[in-house]
Amino acid sequence: MKRFMIHTLLLSLAVALWGCGGDSDEPQQAVTITISQENISVPAGGGTYIVNVTTTGKEWGAYADQDFITIETKNSTSKSGTLTVTVSANPMTSTRTGAITVMSGSARKTISVMQEASAESAYYAPEGYSLVWHDEFDKGSELNGDDWVHEVQGSGWVNHELQNYVNHKTPGGALVTEVRNGHLRITALKENGKVYSGRVYAKRNQGWRYGYIEASIKLPTGKGTWPAFWMMPVNFKSWPDDGEIDIMEEVGYHPDYVSSSLHAKSHVHSNGTQVTHEMYCKGAEGEFHTYAMEWTAENITTYVDGKVQLSYNNRGLGRDDWPYDDPFYIIFNLAWGGDWGGAQGVDESALPVTMEVDYVRVFQKK
Question: Among 51, 255, 278, 309, fewest CB within 10 Å belongs to which?
């Protein structure tokens, strides 16, 4: 009796399901996308291009994978429309490429973009150099994660500094780093009795070996500040043996006096043998000034607004004196207090304070 009831129930369910599915629509056809061009060739000066898009789906969209490509869609909620592609001028003396993906349902179409190299760099560099990497901080509101990484460390980590380095935001959500109005802003602030700030690295695992490196920076004001633009070796093992290059540092209790330093095993501040030079730069706090370094196998020279700050030659004495033949990566940070920044105390009434970077550029010889 039980077996009969079970079989009857299964038969009833099968009939019901067959009845529901017997009159179903035809299987849906795969969505297809048609575009008027799949490749865009752009001159160095940039340009704007119109791509016609048609889909068998209900709507479509698109995105670009590079910041120098901007797109605008029209009639994307219908089966056909247009995609306006704008490519900015190429400042580099090398070609660059990107791609645009057009989407509709599960379908995808790719438009390849290739832009010619600039005959001459749009940015100043010594003769014989070409731009290989830069950040103008003119896209989005955060640092590009492909180029930048934040350091996360508690107070006292190095130099007895008082700040806590965090990734982008404090525990309460306040920004310590942000991109705004074409500038990178690094802010030191106090929250719930602790001081937080930012320390960021460019191309941490890659770096550069030799080149002309320049940044435009506005320094903060306040006793306790210690902003820096500097470099450390990618394959760091020990300090100072592996070297350190300080392109620009300043402390708030000695306003507008900027310095450059080189650290190695045979010249380091801990025993008074450091290679360093200080220069007065009127308006360094509150105004943008350029800080740069030309770095070759024979010499390192730093500059403030184009004027020589420090120059040091490779004297052929080996790695203890010249550990500067390895790749180094770029660092921007704003420390608070510490052995140097806090040597004359700190003034917490100055907080929050902000260091701004207008751009950073790396050039290398062709």
Answer: 278
User: How far is C-alpha 209 from the chain's CA centre?
Assistant: 19
Kindly name the residue from 249, 250, 285, 294 that is annotated as catalytic. Answer: 249
Q: Which two tokens stand for residue 225?
A: 């500040």
Measured between alpha carbons, how far is 195 from 178 in angstroms, rounded to an integer?
A: 17
- Same domain? For 110 and 168 the reply is no
Q: Which of 161, 178, 214, 244 is catalytic?
A: 244
Q: Is 278 a catalytic residue?
A: no
Same structural domain for residues 142 and 215? yes
Q: Which single residue is written with the structure tokens 């608070």? A: 336
Token readout for 189 is 């602030």
Across the strands, what pairs with 304?
A: 291, 307
- What burial class does residue 201 get, using C-beta atoms within 10 Å of its C-beta: 0-12 exposed, 13-18 middle, 19+ buried? buried
List alpha helices for the chain, DSSP H.
Answer: 2-21, 338-341
Q: Write the pLDDT tens digit of every residue in 282-293.
A: 999 999 999 999
> Is position 59 annotated as part of the catalytic site?
no
Predicted model pTM: 0.74
> In which region does residue 75 sit, left (phi positive, over 0), alpha (psi from -120 to 50) or beta (all else)?
left
| Same domain? 104 vs 206 | no
What digits encode the pLDDT tens for the residues 293-346? Answer: 999 999 999 999 999 999 999 999 999 999 999 999 999 999 999 999 999 999
